Every structure is written in structure tokens, then in C-alpha cells.
Amino acid sequence: MKLNPYLTFNGRCEEAFKFYEQHLGGKIEMFHRFGGSPMADQCPPGWADKVMHVSMELDGQILMGSDGPGSDYHGMQGFSLSLGAKDVAEAEKLFNALSVNAQIKMPLQQTFWALRFGMLVDQFGTPWMVNCEQPPA
Asked: Start and end of every PhnB-like domain (predicted)?
């Protein structure tokens, strides 16, 4: 069994996934718009160009998402996506990239469990944690 996060955006899914692809080193593998689907006539006005489904491969893992129309969208709540960095340089690179126009919840810093750990909500509303664990003693 695989566990794949599925993010829902309020009209900014394409922009978010292109940003993640560029800054997290992913590759978008599947992309469908509402307007090109068999349900095109059922999508809200102005949503034909919005994302019905996107799938991106990130270092052997899959991140998926879509746009959730207007009143059905209530933001991303109750979770964070956690990125495990292999070293301090990678942690800093990831955190700095995601920090663009973000709300920093905890600056990237050393903790008792990590060489670097930080939390933020990116410009698209996605909550992230960046963690570079300390090596085993």
C-alpha cells in the first residue's frame, strides 16, 4: 500500500504544482483540466481551465492535487507535508524556496532532534515542515 497526499486548491493548483516541480525537483506526470473531462458541462462557470487532477513524482513518491470549486473549498487544515532533507544544505534550500511569500510558523533552526527543522504555510496555503534529522549517536 502507498500513501499519497492529495492537495486541494482554490483555483491555484496549476501554479502551485509548477512551483513545486521547479523548486522541489518533481516532475508532473499527469494533468487534466475540468474543461477536457467528460464532466466539462458540470463544472462551475470559469472553471474549465482549472485543474481536475494533477500527479507529480517527487523522488519516487507521488503528490497529487486539484482545484476545489468556490464554496466547497475550506482551505488546507489539520495536516502538514513533511520533507525530510538529507543534509543541512538541502534543508535550507527547500525551506528558502518554499518561504517565498509564505507565512513562517517556525524559522528553520536546530532543535534537540534535528540539525534543522522549520514550519511554514506556503503562498498557496500548503502547510510544510522541513526536517533534517540529527545523525544517530
From this structure: 2-130
Could you give the dihedral angle defined by the CA atoms of residues 18, 21, 22 and 25, in that order, rounded to the nearest 10 degrees?
A: 180
Tens of pLDDT, residues 67-109: 986 667 788 999 999 999 999 999 999 999 999 999 999 999 9
124-137 tens-digit pLDDT: 999 999 999 988 77
Residue 58 backbone dihedrals phi, psi, to 5 degrees = -130, 100
Beta bridge partners, 66, equal 8
Give the domains, in start order, of the chain with CATH numbers: 6-72 (3.10.180.10), 81-133 (3.30.720.110)
